[in-house]
Every structure is written in C-alpha cells, then in structure tokens.
Amino acid sequence: MPLLKSYMEVVDAGARSLKMIYQSKMAPKYDFLQEENMEFLLSLLNNESENVSGLGASIISHSCKTSLEQKLLFDAGVLKRLTSLLGGSLIQRDASLESIATIFKNNPEVVSQFVGPDTGRTLSCIIELVKDRFARTRLLASLCLIVIRNASPCYLQDVGIKTKLINNLLELLDDPGQVGDESSFAFSSLIAEKEDMQKLAFEVNGVDKLYNHLQKGSLHPRRFEGILLALADMCSKLECCRSRCLSLQVLNLVVDALAHDSSDVRSAACMCLRSVSRSIKNLSAGSFMNETIVIPLVRLLDDTSTAVQVAALGAISNIVVDFTTRRSTFIRLGGVKLLVQLSKSMDSTIRLNALWALRNLIFLAEDKSKEEIFMELTASLLASLICDPEPSVQEQALALVRNLVDGRINSVEYIFAEDGIILDAVGRQLRIASKAEIEIQGMYVLGNVATGKESHKEAVMDQLLLRAENKAQSCIIKFLQSNDSRLRTAAVWAVLNLTCSSSPGSSGRLVKLHDAGIVSHVKNMVNDPCLDVKLRVKTALEQFNSFDDSLV
Amino acid sequence: MPVRVAESSAPSQVSGAHSEESSPPICSLLTVGQAFSGTQNVSNLQKEEAWRVNVRIQGCDLEHGYLCGTMEALNVPMADTPVVTFWEGEIVDAKNYTFYTGKWEATPEDDIRHWTKFPSFAPLLSRVEADGGKSLDLSNYPYIFMRWKEQYFVNVGTDCGLTIAGFYYVCFSCSDGSINGFYYDPNSSPFQKLELKCANEGRSGFSFSSYELQ
After folding, report:
1. Which positions 381-420 of A are in contact with B (Cβ < 8 Å)?
2. 3-state secondary structure string across B170-208
3. With an 8 Å Cβ cutoff, are B175 and A539 in contact?
4. CA dihedral B74, B80, B81, B83 (to 10 degrees)
5. On the CB side of A82, how many CA atoms lie within 13 Å of its CA?
C-alpha cells in the first residue's frame, strides 16, 4: 500500500507544520464553540500519529482562553484522551501536560468536576512525571499540579508531594535554558499567598538556593526577574525568610537590580525589597533607611515605566515606617518632593501609592519632618485628595491626615490651615461616604482633633452636628449603628474625647450631643457584641455620669 | 527594660506548646503607635529603687499572636542617656502561644508563679493547671496576657553593663490600657514589677495614628 503510506506522511508533515504555527501567539484562535470543530479536535487527539495528536493538544494550549471553552473541552471528554497521551511519546506527554494545565487554569468549577474513577489515575500519572528524566516534562508536570492545586486547594494536601514540587522547581533552576528561566515563576505561583508552602520552601533552604542563583551574576533578565519574584514571595509572610535574606546580605544584589536595564527586573527588585522590609524588627532597627537603599529607590520614582514606579512606591511605603529619626534621610534625598508630585498623578494607582507612602512616612514623625512634609503637600492639595474620585485614595488621604494631627498637641493646628479647608473636606466626606474604610479613617481624624484644645473640640462638634442634605440625623449616628465594629469603635472614641471630664466645655458638648440623639445611641450600645466597643461605651457612660445624671 | 545582673535561682525545663482556635480581643488601646509610661521596681534587699519606663507599640500581628515595640528606661544609674531596647511579644491566645513559656529558662512552675501574681489570672488558673489553658476562649476576656522579650539595645552597645537576658510576664487591661508586668530572669532580683499606664502625651483624650505595610 505505497499510496496510503505516503498519504500518512503528508498528514504527518501537515500536522507538524500546523503544530509549529499554533506555537505562535499570532496564530488565529481555534473556535471550540462550533460542534464540528470539537469533533475534529477529538479526532486529532484520538489519532495514533504523535504529530497529529500533538497538534490536537497544541490547539488546546493555544486557543482555550475562556472558562466556557475550558468547560466545553472538559465536558467533551478531552481529559480522558489527554490522560492516555501522558503515557505516550515525549512530544505527546509534554503537549498533553500543557493542555491539561490550560483546561484547569483558574477554573475551580472544572477542577471540582474532576472527580471520579479517572481522577486518581490522571493525578498519579502527572505526579509520576514530576520525576521524569526530561527537565521540560518535570516543569510542565509541576505546572499542571500547581494549576490544579491553586484552583482547588483540596487536591495535593500531602506534605510529601508539596515538598517534592518545591524541591523539583528549585532543582530545575539549574537548567541553563528556558526551563530554568521559567521554573522560578512556577515556584512563585506555587507558594504565593500560602504561608504553609512558604514555610516548607524555607525548610528546604529555598532562600539559600535562590540566593545562590542570584549570586552567579550576568543572568538573563527573565531568569533574574523570576528569582527576585520568588524571593519576594518567600519573604511576603514569614519573618524567618526575611531574616535569612538579611543575614545572607541578599539586599546588596537586590539593590543593584534596582538599576537594571530591564524594567521587569527593576520592578521585581522593588517587590523583593517590599517583602523583606515587612520585618518590623528590622524597620525598628532602621535597617532599610540608609542611602544605599533610599537613593536608587527614590530614583525609580521618576522611572519611565508606571509598573516600576508603583513597585518602587510599594517598597518605599514600608521603608519609611521609621521608628528612629532616620526619616530625615528620605526627606533630605528629595523623596517627599517626588511623592507629593506623584500624589497629583493622573493615574489613580500612582496617587494611591504615593499617598500610602506619605501616610506611613508621617506616622509618629517628629515635628520638623511633619512641617517639611506639610509645606510640600499644602492644605489645599490634601483637601482635594480627601475628595478624590477614587475611594482608596480618599482613604489614604484621610489616614495621612489622621497621622498628621497625632503626636504633639500643636500638630492639631495643621487641620485648621487655610481657613480649615482640610477639616471641612473631612466633614464633607464623612457625610457622603459609603465605604467603612473611609469612614473609619475620617472618624479617627475627628477623634484625634478632639483631643486638642477647647476650640479644636468645638470645631469637631460643628462638623459632627452638620447634617448632610436630606439627612435627618448626624452621620455619627449611622457610624454608631454600623455593622463594622472598627467604625463603631472609632465613633465612640470621638464621643469620649469630646466629653473628656478634664475639659471645661465638655458638659456643654454633652448637652448638644444629647439633643442630637447621639448620647441615647451610645447608651444603647452598652452590650455591644464587640468587647472593645463595649468597654469604650462603659467608659463613656461613666464620663456622662460625672456631668449630669439626667442625661444618662 | 535592661536590668543589672544579680543573684541567681531556679533551673530550666522546657514544656510543649499547644494549639487551639481562639484569639484575643482586638483592643484599640493596644495598637501601633500607642504609648505607655510608668515605672519598673528594681528594688533589692539593699536598696529601694524604681526606674521610669516608657513603652511604645510599634507592630502588631494578632493572627500570629505577635506584638513588638520599644522600651525606654529613663533613670538607669549606669547609663548617661535613657536606654532604649526593642522587644517582641507573644500574646497568649491558646492558638499561637499558651501560658506555658517553654523556653527562656522558665519552667511551668515559674510560669504559674508569675501569672498568679495577676488578680485577673485567678479565674483561669484551674483550667490552665488542668490542660495548659488550651480549651480557654480568651477572645472575650477583658485582659490580654503576654510575654515580652527584649531583643536588642537600640541606642547603646551591648557593652553597657546591662543585660536583657530575662523577659516579662505581662497583663494588659483592655478597659483602661494599663499594663502590669513581672520581669523574670533567674539571674536577677525576682518579681521586679512593671507598672504602666496609657500616656496621653499632653492631650485631653486618646489619639490614634496608624501605618499599613504593603
């Protein structure tokens, strides 16, 4: 049958060419929604030729993008066929692993249907391939398991498999090619946000192993980025990982990476620095607030890439949490000027992160630093940021003002600058806001101002007793009734500070609060389910009592 | 707060830690930025003496039962300046930490001997003796029990002739933010009492600042 043989050769060659075409991102998408297309795909997968079935798998990896497509492929029984390909040639195995990962990726619904007699077989096939002798197969099998686990944490609970995956990916870093470059990204997706996985990775010396690769120098940018991100994920939650990084002096290499040509590497270096600087123990020791770190970071605030700017702001937000007097270093190096500039950016993510950094910088700041920061910020800019269209920006702006008026008593005066435009903005925002986070920060601003002089307390009263249009009652009553105990706490603290028994005007203010219906609401909270609120209310009632029994 | 090295006592033994679901109340007076001031009684047989002490909370991670901050001792006889130390705290939440220290040369007997010095511990004693307190739900208890362990000197060298080898058994009152503690170091005078109150820092009322790490 010479004719048939050559026909098969043509099919094979055609499949090989198409497979190569489908490896390009530019190739058109295959439409799974058409029934005949799905039938054709299944026929490809069922074909005995490794190039033809490999083509079927390549089409899935290339074209399956939506959760509907994932479900259609799953329901069509593609998985069964792909599982059998796992036992095939190298080409079939790798193509099948990629396709399985594509069908499960970020789709808990499909993963949850992945139960039944075939589940165990498929999983054990993949687990077996994690030990394969080919590096690329090991990486693809690991990625497949990670996708399944991330979509549904009930799979792969076994510590042995978890440790195996971690070790495998760390070992794959030794591969000099693309597999080595990609293994750190797979490692990140395995441990990101998962403290138990990070702990396991720490126990197998993950930090040291990543550091060893980083140390080799002149890395391909993709590999450099991946290792920095893997370190960032390892240090995101666990202090032991951060300590290990610091004792290995990993930061020297990370700081160098801040000036790398590739913006992805610069961004990853910032993220690594951000994770390590979550260590309060080291922030307290002032370990990060030095010129070696601050100068290159501040330089990145001017970066041409927005992603780098945002990442740099993230690292700066942590580093400026300073318990010594070193924040002057940051101010001296021009950091505040740039942060204030960025707080006026058209990009709301930049505004948010710039304000976040300023809020942390001003936390427990000494008078001189506060003054310098406020001079740069100005009352009018702060007032406009409190009323920013983006709610998360409003929240950070209010948190910043809360810190600004804390500390020494004269700090309260800042809120009265330029005819009190900041205070007015705070009051206005509290009357119209609908997000608890904004209301909490706003109430703490008023509560902090209410710890000042008589005139300060009276100004807070004015804001609280002003009613929004069409509203029958003061906004604080809404806060006292909130479902969020943090907001109730903040509201009761403001009442407590306004009726402090040591202040001469407190009894007058108590009468006004009573007439506005606020006192009776506080009284009703005596059995609040939140202990903190309950204890504050108890103190408030004792305070009320000391003035006038008739009000309580 | 650092103390001078004095007479010794008690050997050491280690006990295991237990774990159980339960967390302490989130108290607004025990949050970052809050300051406390008071004294530590360092009297011994020879002499009555108390050092003024300031404390500031710098970090708090209730999920991990973690708290940290600085402690400043003001009139330390051997030091020219106030001595500042950084401490880390373990919150007894029956989840991350129990009443049994299990380290720092503290035996279960030392633990009970110190905890029972706090009147607010009395209602918990029998349960703690029965099962280490692992079945206690402390989430609605108006006191928070902690251990504070100084980790390093912030502003002086380790050659200052002072030691931070011991640790504090601490009881925090959620009602008024007052803190009582006992310093424990087998090599120092026993039961040195720490007494702190919320510091209003010249304000009429309570002011709260905050930071958030990214």
Report:
1. 399, 402-403, 405-409
2. EEEECCCCCEEEEEECCCCCCCEEEEEEECCCCCCCCCC
3. yes
4. -60
5. 31
Type of residue numbered A35: E
Lookup: tokens for A81: 């066929």
Buried b (16+ CB within 10 A) or exposed e, B115-148: beebebbeebeeebeeebbbebebeebbbbbbbb
Cα–Cα distance measured from residue B42 to residue A272, given in angstroms and rounded to the nearest whole number: 44
Report the SS3 class of residue A81: helix
Question: Could you report the per-residue pLDDT of B20-36, keeping only the tens digit for each?
Answer: 333 444 799 999 999 99
- As for how many domains chain A has, the answer is 1
- Using an 8 Å CB-CB cutoff, list chain B residues near A531: 25, 27, 139-140, 142, 174
Asked whether residue A210 is domain-assigned, the answer is no
CB A105 within 8 A of CB A147: yes
Residues of B with CB below 8 A from A503's CB? 204
The whole-angstrom separation of Cα B1 and Cα B150 is 7
Extents of the domains making up chain B = 35-198
Residue A534 domain flag: yes
Chain position carrying tokens 């996985």: A197
pLDDT in tens, A279-337: 999 998 888 988 899 999 999 999 999 999 999 999 999 999 987 767 888 998 999 99
Chain B 86-145, residues with CB within 8 Å of chain A CB atoms:
86, 88, 139-140, 142
> Is residue A469 very low, low, confident or very high in pLDDT (cuts 50, 70, 90)?
low
**Contact check, Cβ <8 Å, B210/A536:** no
Segment 163-182 of chain B within 8 Å of chain A by CB: 174-176
Q: Which chain B residues contact residue A317 at CB under 8 A?
A: 212-214
Q: Please tell me which residue, B153 or B7, carries the higher pLDDT value.
A: B153
Tell me whether residue A82 is in a domain: no
Which are the contacts of A410, defined by CB distance < 8 A and separation ≥ 6? A367
Query: Can you tell me the distance from the alpha carbon of A525 to that of A530, in angstroms, rounded to the nearest whole number?
Result: 10
Structure tokens, A288? 């990060």
Check pLDDT > 90 for residue A233: yes
Domain extent for A511: 478-552
C-alpha to C-alpha distances, A247 to A240, A252, A276, A447, nearest whole angstrom: 11, 11, 12, 42
Q: Which two tokens stand for residue A485?
A: 């105990």
- Let me know if residue A447 belongs to a domain: no
Please answer yes or no on whether A497 and B204 come within 8 Å at the CB atom.
Answer: yes
* Confidence (pTM): 0.90
Residues in chain A closer than 8 A to B142 (CB atoms): 531, 535
